[in-house]
Amino acid sequence: MNPWLQVLEDPGHALTVTEVLARQDPKDWRVENNQGRFGFSGASVWLSLRLAPDPDVNGDYLLHLRTPNLSYAALYLLVDGKLRWSAELPEDTPLHARPFRHRQFVFPLQFKPDEQPRLLVKVTPRKNLAMTVPVDLWQTEPFRAADQGQMLFYGVLYGVTSIMALYALVLFFAIRENSHLHFAAFLFSNTLFQANFQGVLTQFCWPERGASLEMALNGTITPFVMATSLGFFAEFSKVGRWFPTTGRLTRYFVYINLGLGSFAPLIGYNTALNASLVGTMLMGWVSFPIAIAAWKHGGRAGRAFVSCLPIFSVGGIALTLRGLGLLPGGFWSEDYQPTSTIAMVLILAFALSDRINQERAERERAQERALEVEKEAAATLQHKVDERTSELANQTRAAQTARAEVEDLNDRLCASMEELGTLFDGLRQGVFSFRQDLRIGDHWSAEAGRIFKREELEGLRVDDLLLRGIPEWHPEHESLQRWLALVFETPPERFEELAELAPSEFVFRPDTPEAMQVQLEFCAITHGGALLQVLCLATDVSAQRRAEIREAQSQEDLQLLRGLTDGGADMVAFLRVSQERWNSFRELLEGCAPGPSPGQVQELFRLAHTIKGEAR
After folding, report:
1. Which runs of consecutive H residues, i.e. helices, occur in 427-494?
2. Neighbour order of strands in the sheet with 44-50
3. SS3 readout for 421-455
């Protein structure tokens, strides 16, 4: 095939093949190489090329237009100036209806080896996209072999990326690390983008729709590829830790791309695609220095990005320049991107594995530090336990010694109480002691049982014993309760002052017709400066108090007799006059029925006051 093409632009998309053939003026045609870069003109383009086939080769050929950005293509085969065969191929033509079943624009050609045909090709670009139309002439069998090799390559590419995506997704659910989720999303979206861009989805998923869905998917998927790649970059490299402002800008860029992909049907698929392509170039130049800076600041993830970003960025930039019509077709603009994707996936997979190993090593170091801290804490705790055990042992021995002393003191106290009980039984005094809980001990005198009319005093509360028969509202009841509440709260050295405030004598009312007058005296029993018990001495003074009362009454009677003897005549006169007034009082009172008058009331008051005054 001649490496040079004649090009005729058709801005109105209205020229027919007859009109094109009629234009023989060389000024209407310009010469281009067979890479066919036509930019963003938006016009239809007619390509004219002459073939010089090899006479020794069979005349079955295929014309291949290597471009994904066409909406329409038509081929006209001219031999000796006459139209022999033509075919039209809109982008939405189903694969089974195409002249040659293929995902791209491919036309079959048949002519004799001695013929030199002329080909007219009309191509129309997609809206708002640059048009690049590389033209290749193949023989049928080599083309099929090359296409099968390319499909095998794509199968390996998509298989590797899909497996890595599933593996990253499994790792995310296993260890809940967000980097693996972002990596899986990036691999899935990038695989879908590659398959759609290469026409594989059209060939195997919706062959009946042709290439009509490719543009919509490209405009939707490309922003998501950008968003997921930037999200993975930010999450894996922890760029926000080293550069907070850059981290925020990266998030904003992710949100912008997600918005482009989500609203692509509204703003136009071509607009979203072009914006993402420009973003691809910017990411390629911006991410690289950021990754280097993150690596220098201690981020090991930056090392992986420094390694893979040049590979990926060169492919992305080449693909962008190819889509913008600034770079011809070939390995760098078409096949380098899938190849770089595999290299990038492998590098990032190793980086993720390295990160897992790094995190495992950090966990192991953290566990070792935790074990060391635990051992130190256990040793410190054991030391404190030993110290505390020693202290408790010393305190236990001291408590046992004190208990032995208390028991010895209690034994001596019991013996003393028995001796005191015997002594006071002879002195006709009741004696008992009570503890801090106000309960009487096990030693008490027989006289105490007789005084308080109890056969057994041990265990009784001293307030219940002394206040039996005395109501709670009685002053004696309240005063004794208050005094008992202060006994064991008062220092022993001030007990004598407190004892002077105790009730010294009160009327004891047991369950008998006669009340008993009891005199009390309280003494402290101390040891080592501590008040152990309180000794109570009770004396029955009822007979003494009754004798004192009888003596007082005798003295009063004697004084009355003496008064009668000294003034007998006056007394007789007083009694006689009082009797007369009393009789008048009664007569006046009986005559007041049914009711006294005011004058009678005044008279009654006068008689009563007179009797009272004379009695004085």
Report:
1. 446-451, 462-466, 475-487
2. 30-33, 4-10, 44-50, 118-125, 70-79, 82-90
3. HHHHHHCCCEEEEECCCCEEEEEECHHHHHHCCCC
- Which amino acid is present at 243? F
Cα 335 to Cα 332: distance, rounded to the nearest angstrom: 6
Higher confidence at residue 171 or residue 460? 460
Pick from 63, 198, 33, 49: nearest CA to 136: 63
Q: How far apart are CA 183 and CA 352, in angstroms?
A: 9
- Residue 177 contacts residue 235 (beta carbons within 8 Å): no
Q: Is the pLDDT of residue 301 over 60?
A: no
- For the record, the structure tokens of 362 come out as 């950090």
- Distance set, CA 350 to CA 343, 353, 363 (Å): 11, 5, 20
The confidence band for 331, taking pLDDT boundaries of 50, 70 and 90, is: very low
| Residue range 551-575, pLDDT digits in tens | 888 777 777 666 655 555 666 677 7
- DSSP letter at 515 equals -
The model's pTM = 0.50
Q: What is the per-residue pLDDT for 319?
A: 58
Q: pLDDT tens-digit profile of 30-42?
A: 777 655 566 666 7
Query: Which residue's structure tokens are 């600034």?
Result: 326
Mean pLDDT estimate for the chain: 77
Among 260, 172, 248, 249, which residue's Cα sits nearest to residue 224? 260
CB 47 within 8 A of CB 135: yes
DSSP string, 475-501: HHHHHHHHHHHHHTTS-GGGHHHHHHT
Confidence category of residue 122, pLDDT binned at 50, 70, 90: very high
pLDDT of residue 75: 92
Residue type, 361: A
- Per DSSP, 56 falls in state T
Residues whose CB is less than 8 angstroms from the CB of residue 66 and which lie 6 or more positions away in sequence, other chains included: 104, 134, 135, 136, 329, 334
The tokens for 88 are 């039209």
The count of other CB atoms within 10 Å of the CB of residue 332 is 17
DSSP string, 171-220: HHHHH--HHHHHHHHHHHHHHHHHHHHTTHHHHHT-GGGTTHHHHHHHHH
Q: How far apart are CA 475 and CA 493, in angstroms?
A: 28
Q: What's the confidence (pLDDT) of residue 469?
A: 74
Question: CB of 119 within 8 A of CB of 76?
Answer: yes
Name beta bridge partners: 31. 6
| Residues whose CB is less than 8 angstroms from the CB of residue 537 and which lie 6 or more positions away in sequence, other chains included | 424, 429, 430, 431, 520, 521, 522, 523
- Give the pLDDT confidence score for residue 302 in this predicted structure: 53
Confidence check: pLDDT of 76 > 80: yes
Residue 498, amino acid: L
Q: How many CA atoms lie within 13 A of 382 on its CB side?
A: 6
β partners of residue 520: 538
Confidence of residue 579 (pLDDT cuts 50, 70, 90): confident
Buried b (16+ CB within 10 A) or exposed e, 418-447: eebbeebbeeebbbbbbeeebebbebbbeb
Angstrom distance (rounded) from CA 58 to CA 139: 8
- How wide is the angle at C-alpha 505 spanned by C-alphas 504 and 510, nearest 5°? 135
Collapse the DSSP code of 596 into the 3-class scheme (helix H, G, I; strand E, B; otherwise coil) and give the result.
coil
pLDDT band at 332 (very low <50, low <70, confident <90, very high): very low
Q: Specify the DSSP class assigned to residue 129.
A: -
Could you tell me the two tokens for 180? 């693996």
Q: Hey, is 182 helix, strand or coil?
A: helix
